[in-house]
Amino acid sequence: MNPCTSGDIREALRVRYPMPEWALFFEVSNGTGGNVLRYADAVAMNMFPSRGLAVHGFEIKVSRSDWLHELKQPLKSEPVQKYCDFWWVVTCKDVVKPGELPVTWGHIEYRGSKLFTVDKAPKLEAQAMNRGFAAALIRRAGELDAGQRRALVARETSRLEAEYRERIDKVRTTAGTELLALRKSVDEFEKASGIKISKYDGERIGHAVLKLFDGYDLLPSRLQSIHNLASALAKDTAAAIEELKPAGEVEGSTV
Fold it and tell me: For all residues of the chain together, what is the average pLDDT?
């Protein structure tokens, strides 16, 4: 049983050469129509001028026999390789043995879902792309394979999931802080009032507190009314007392 598949290696290449820095194509021919002589398993072109717009070509080999067959035809890759700045063979583990690699090739090995450079590819003197090869690349650009579509969907799904988790974490943090502050306020109220608040009597206590605050706001005017009433009552009481006092006897009078 092979330690990896060509599908595994393709997925790993997508990770290693992601957009927008790279444009990655699979099954790229040297031209179109009757000019097709050879297909490369993959071609990656760097999109950054600062990095030289380098073109990398890849052969994918998942078995020892497949690799040995490739070695019997060392010039088979030439129709596509001549347009590349670097040429690689990408293999499962232990497919390429030491000393077997052609001098113009580099070697990348797939291990545990990742790619590792075993032998660095030398810089080649790439030919300028002709219209045939450019047409082959453009054709592949318009034909995203199923794996590429899955990769795009997977990356976008992963991004959205990460964004969702980040938002949930923020909500949890904010809610936790607010809950602690609310708990502190409730504890302070219970301690000061001697009243325990539960989910069963919270509404009743709330109404009572509202009435208390309403009454407190009206207290000055009510006290003023009581003061005015008391003053008037005191005045009326004093007048009544004066009226009820017994009349004094007139000097020298007889009964």
Answer: 82
Q: Is 205 exposed, middle or buried (0-12, 13-18, 19+ CB in 10 A)?
A: middle
- pLDDT in the model for residue 103: 93
The ranges assigned to domains in the chain are 6-143, 145-197, 198-238
Identify whether the C-beta of residue 31 lies closer than 8 Å to the C-beta of residue 135. yes
Task: Please classify residue 7 by burial: count the beta carbons closer than 10 Å to its beta carbon, then call 0-12 exposed, 13-18 middle and 19+ buried.
Answer: exposed
Tokens of 26: 């699979």
**Structure confidence by residue, pLDDT tens digits, 72-127:** 887 888 999 999 999 999 999 999 999 999 999 999 999 988 999 999 999 999 99
Alpha-carbon gap, residue 190 to 192, rounded angstroms = 6
Question: Which letter, b or e, does each residue of 210-239 get, where b requires 16 or more Cβ atoms within 10 Å of its Cβ?
Answer: eeeeeeeeeeeeeeeeeeeeeeeeeeeeee
